[in-house]
Amino acid sequence: MNQSIKPGDNPDLTEERLSGTFDTNSMAAVIYGSDKLAQRRREISEAVSRIPELQDSKPCPFMTREEKILEGSRKSAILNRLLPGLIDLDSFEETVFIHQEVIGIEGHPLALHESLFIPPIATQGTDEQQKKWLGRAQRREIIGCYAQTELGHGSNLRALETTATFDISSQEFILNSPTITSLKWWPGALGKSANWSIVIANLIVHDKNHGPHPFMVQLRDEKSHEPLPGITVGDIGPKMAFNGADNGFLGFENYRIPRENMLMRHSKVTPDGGYIRPPHAKIGYSGMVRVRSRMAAEQGLFLAHALTIAVRYSAIRRQGYLEDRSREVKVLDYQTQQHRLFPSIARAYAFIFCGFETIRLYDQLLIDVQNGNTSGMADLHALTSGLKSVVTHQTGEGIEQARMACGGHGYSMASYISEIYGVAIGGCTYEGENMVMLLQLARYLVKSIEMIQNGKSKNLGPMVAYLAANESEIDLNLGPNEYLKVFQYAARSQAWRATEKFQKLRNSGMSKEQAWNQASVELTRASRLHTRLYIMSTFINHVGSVVDQKIKKVLIDLLNVHITYEVMDIGIYVQGLLSSDQMDLIRNQLYVSLETIRPNAVSLVDSFQISDMQLRSVLGRRDGNVYENLFKWAKSCPLNDKDVLESVTKYLKPMMDKSKL
Ligand SMILES: CCCCCCCCCCCCCCCC(=O)SCCNC(=O)CCNC(=O)[C@H](O)C(C)(C)COP(=O)(O)OP(=O)(O)OC[C@H]1O[C@@H](n2cnc3c(N)ncnc32)[C@H](O)[C@@H]1OP(=O)(O)O
Ligand SMILES: Cc1cc2nc3c(=O)[nH]c(=O)nc-3n(C[C@H](O)[C@H](O)[C@H](O)COP(=O)(O)OP(=O)(O)OC[C@H]3O[C@@H](n4cnc5c(N)ncnc54)[C@H](O)[C@@H]3O)c2cc1C
Fold first, then answer.
1. Can you give the pLDDT at residue 472?
2. Distances in Å between the alpha carbon of 338 and those of 310, 422, 483, 543, 618?
3. How many domains does the chain have?
4. Is residue 236 part of a domain?
5. Ligand 1 centroid vs 432 CA: distance in angstroms?
6. Is residue 626 part of a domain?
7. Ligand 2 centroid to 430 CA: how many Å?
């Protein structure tokens, strides 16, 4: 049963919910990993909805940037007081969720505090450093951010210019931004809110540059909040979206911090200027791997937001006719609309399933690394580099399709889809620009193929073992595992094609760097296919593990949408494997699977259980009563406070009065 049905709802939406074949609470439990987690989300939403001071003071699209930051800060402060009674304070998921629910997706002063400031202290700080700062940060006595990117450098960490030079005589590091391009640029919450930051700077000891390292740096006075002497800091201005966050700039001029402020769990500088290397050269990058490992689930949820809006709206929007000329049809009945939306529903589920898997893998890696075992770092770096790139790109595409699926009203901020889009596509850039991260994964794929070429296939990890197989024929009786083989074929042949191109260029005498550059489009294609294969196989495994038969049935239907759509989408890569008859068969299976999933479309998006408060969309309202609320929303727009605006009295009226044309 669909748990969203309530009296007074739009009957078209109720009809859809009654046609669903499964229990949406049970599906939510599968989506969020357990009945308890799904239940906690519902309880938190419910509790928040009963607290008047946590409600939006007005719709976000009617707020200026200053109002958004003020509103985010107001709610953050109230939440900090109320959190102990509302959530499990030890749960990162619940903390993120409640902020999302109460403040929304446009960012807020603490947006980076939990995800990029606290984790490096907890994982890269020594026990004493944790004792000194972790409690203060968790109680929010200080607000932090993560300052790595510079005005002139982001993707290439090795070119960062900020320096932290060790001064033995005073036992301090001296921070400097030697050039305009070395100004830190972009860190969220840095602009106006944070008073502390993790700063990534080149560690220089005895004139030797040891590369980027993390430092705990106080930026502002804890009483006055004024920037401390030697610090230049401010906001970088409005962005495409995410304007509730104050992304900032930061410069240092001979700014001194104690030696104990370098995070020293892994790399160390001793009082006499000795440098102790970390157990793995890239361990300082692990904060980024953590965020990337969470991005698939986050992005899947952004896509889920847009689809909840578009699918619900498509069920109440009537336009045009099919057979019955007496009543217009729901636009959701058009095959084109289904083709536009249903494969994205499948992707949202797939991304969330993958996302919870990579979060689990990261948590395991963290335990391993704390125990001195860094052997899993390269695998997870490669996997999360590809995943963040593919998922953010496809999420952006899916959200834009959802907007177009809502016609004209999709373009209105009342739909809220443009904000969701703007926030989500930030992910194509932050935590590593997508092309750059695809090329990181490509390094791993090329190395794997070189292992096969050197007769060491048995050393390949399970994720790349398929690169050594030799599939040349596929049974026409296509089930999920045959689709997987088709995808393996595509990913394998592209990985070999790209590697061989790189090797050929090398053998022609080209430098490694030039050959890599000349092969890079092919290499990124290989990375995308590898990642899409991983997403598909995780989806198949996840559905296989579901116990509830009604849920399993609909997830198999959704999986059929996914596998047929994905294989059609990569048709060009499987021409050598599949005949045109087989391609036709798959195409027809896709159309059948769209029809099969149609009665469950609304229930599938309802199962994400995104509350109206969190969705902030007039079009996506749970009750489907869109038109009267669109009219209310438009009337409440500040432009309608007066009938005659100054723009008219001051300019247009005099122009019309004087016009001689
Ligand atoms: C609905 C729910 C919403 C929830 C709510 C969300 C709201 C939404 C919030 C928005 C929040 C935004 C938050 C943004 C926060 C930032 O954006 S912070 C800044 C992030 N910046 C980046 O990601 C920079 C990207 N660049 C890099 O990471 C590095 O420069 C690169 C690309 C990895 C290259 O590093 P490099 O040191 O030059 O290394 P390179 O020579 O390429 O490689 C050397 C070896 O190291 C290996 N390696 C590199 N990195 C690693 C690693 N991490 N681990 C292991 N090995 C590694 C390589 O694989 C390579 O191995 P081999 O092939 O040699 O075996
Ligand atoms: C919303 C948002 C929030 C952010 N928050 C933070 C934060 O909190 N803290 C922080 O430190 N930073 C933050 N950032 C910065 C972000 O991490 C960087 O912008 C990102 O890492 C990309 O780096 P870049 O801007 O230097 O891009 P560039 O590297 O300049 O990219 C420009 C183009 O060059 C290409 N390119 C670059 N290098 C290569 C290469 N080696 N091979 C092929 N192509 C290449 C890219 O693919 C891209 O097409 C944020 C950014 C955004 C948008």
1. 67
2. 11, 24, 22, 22, 22
3. 1
4. yes
5. 6
6. no
7. 6
